[in-house]
Each structure stands twice: as C-alpha cells, then as structure tokens.
C-alpha cells in the first residue's frame, strides 16, 4: 500500500477512470457529491478522459450517474457479468446461464427464506416484492418484475443476488460458497449482498474487456473501489485506489488509500494523483463554473432527483 507521497502521475498518463459506485463514487445516501461530480465532468468534457463505472448494480442503476457527469464509455455491471458501451448500448461481454443451472440455488434460498433477486442483463425478477425491500430497490433504480415460475425465464441469468443481514454475511457466504462454489463465483458484494455470477465474471475481467475495446493498456487506468468485489479491478489498473471506508484487506491490496465515500474520497484521490494535490487555477475556475451551472436542487441529491425522477 502506498499513499499520495509515493504515487505520482500526470494528467496525460491517465486515459480512463474505472470507478465502483456504491461505497465509492456516491455517499451512503446514494448522492454524487458536488466536487466529485464537477471534477469528473471536467475530466470528461475538457480533458477527454473516459469513465468506466464498474458495479454490482444492473444497467439502470448506473446509467443515471454516468449521465450526471455527461460521460460516454464502457459500463461493467452485474459484477462483470455484463459489459456494454454507454450510450450506444453495444455489448462486448456477457457471462450468463440458463435458468435451469440456477434452480438448485433458488430452491435452497427459498427453503431458507432468504430474500433474493434474479437478474438478466437488463431486468430484475423476484417471486414477490416484499414491502420492506421496496425502498431499497427504489434507491438502486430497480423495478422488480414478479415471476410465478422461474422456468419461464428465457434470457440468460447473469447474476443472482442474496440479501443478508450484515451480522450474518460471513457465515452465510461461507455456507453458500462451500455448497455452490464449484459452479458459480459466490462473492460478497457490499456489506449485505452475496452475488452468484459466472466464474469468469468479475470487475477485473470486465475492465480488461473495456480496455481491449478502447485500445488502452492497464497502465493508463486509475481504478477506485471499496470492497472485496473490487480487488481484481484494483489489481489490474496501473493505480488501484481503496476508499477510506474499505475493509483492511482491500486497503492492503491497493496502491493508494483515500478518504471515505462520505468525504468525497474519489475527488481527493484524483486531485492528489493527477494534479499533485492542488488544482491549477484554470481548472479550479472551471470547476467553480460547473458547480454554478449545476441546478441547486441537484447538488448533493440522488441521481434520480437530479435527473427529474
């Protein structure tokens, strides 16, 4: 692990920013905070950088944040199981299974009465929408579709997500990984989720596919993340940045540790790494202008509020 005193880049060294979303890009209230939004917008519009959002979310859950920074580029979603280019929608990687391969997992979870959802590339399915989970789905811009018979699914399943109380996460993960780990990658995705994905699906492979499409090398990438499902991405990038709210094991694997997501750690890291800790006057003035241009109600609000619903 290194810090900003020993990791030094220039703006010209970096062509792409690979950013996790929850716990990294946005704060705990699902807000893209003002300085981070302004800096990323400037890097996209004025410096010609690409942003690749890499998330366990589905496409609908990440595209609003991409639009907030006026970004165009690859999106790595479902923890790397589905990768496509925004806004054109061109797919460049998909790791999926027919529903039959998931039936034993589904039966186990239903017997345990653990809430879960099943994801195809663009849609999310549940047996029922539990009232207590409706606000959570809304926060992720997800619109669950109720399905009576899982065998009716025709599109490939790219991810199955299990919601687990934080205090039970490690034990349930160990149990499910032992039983199904020979067929799926069973990964902790945040402090309350366990995801089942294809063994080759991870954010590192998703980022690698994006770089191949763009003709870039890993050395031209800064990747920022906060959790275990970000490790492959952080290891691949020229510089891997861990958030201050990351577990110790993630911080140890990173090249650089920044502040937490609630302290705009992405902004702090990028200013330090790309500008030596101090914005040039012309860039600072541009960011002030961008902040003034941002509608007052959108500053610090969730993406849904900023985009008008």
From TrEMBL:
Name of this chain's protein: Uncharacterized protein
UniProt xrefs under InterPro entries: Cof (IPR000150), HAD-like_sf (IPR036412), HAD-SF_hydro_IIB (IPR006379), HAD_sf (IPR023214)
Domain of life: Bacteria
SUPFAM superfamilies recorded: HAD-like
CDD domains: HAD_Pase
Residues annotated as signal peptide: none
Cross-referenced PANTHER family: HAD SUPERFAMILY HYDROLASE-LIKE, TYPE 3, PHOSPHOSERINE PHOSPHATASE
Organism the protein comes from: Brockia lithotrophica
GO cellular component: cytosol
NCBIfam families membership: Cof-subfamily (TIGR00099), HAD-SF-IIB (TIGR01484)
Pfam families: Hydrolase_3
An annotated Gene Ontology molecular function: phosphatase activity
Gene3D superfamilies for the chain: 3.30.1240.10, HAD superfamily/HAD-like
């Amino acid at each position: 692990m290194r810090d900003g005193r020993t990791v030094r880049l220039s703006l010209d060294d970096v062509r792409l920013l690979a950013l996790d979303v929850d716990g990294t890009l946005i704060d705990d209230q699902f807000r893209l905070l003002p300085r981070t939004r302004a800096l990323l917008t400037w890097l996209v519009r004025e410096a010609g950088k690409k942003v690749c959002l890499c998330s366990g979310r589905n496409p609908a859950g990440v595209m609003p944040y991409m639009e907030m920074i006026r970004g165009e580029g690859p999106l790595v979603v479902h923890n790397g199981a589905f990768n496509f280019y925004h806004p054109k929608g061109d797919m460049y990687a998909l790791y999926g299974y027919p529903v039959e391969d998931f039936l034993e997992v589904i039966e186990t979870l239903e017997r345990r009465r653990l809430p879960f959802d099943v994801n195809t590339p663009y849609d999310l399915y549940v047996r029922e929408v539990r009232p207590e989970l409706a606000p959570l789905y809304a926060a992720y811009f997800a619109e669950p579709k109720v399905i009576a018979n899982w065998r009716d699914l025709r599109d490939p399943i790219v991810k199955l997500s299990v919601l687990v109380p934080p205090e039970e996460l490690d034990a349930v993960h160990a149990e499910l990984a032992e039983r199904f780990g020979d067929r799926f990658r069973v990964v902790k995705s945040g402090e309350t989720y366990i995801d089942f994905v294809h063994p080759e699906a991870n954010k590192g492979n998703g980022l690698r596919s994006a770089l191949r499409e763009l003709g870039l090398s890993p050395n031209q990438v800064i990747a920022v993340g906060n959790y275990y499902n970000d490790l492959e991405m952080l290891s691949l990038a020229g510089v891997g940045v861990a958030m201050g709210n990351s577990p110790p094991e993630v911080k140890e694997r990173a090249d650089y540790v920044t502040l937490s997501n609630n302290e705009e750690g992405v902004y702090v890291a990028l200013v330090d790494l790309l500008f030596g800790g101090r914005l040039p006057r012309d860039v600072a003035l541009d960011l002030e202008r961008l902040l003034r241009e941002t509608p007052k109600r959108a500053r610090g609000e969730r993406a849904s509020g900023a985009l008008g619903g």
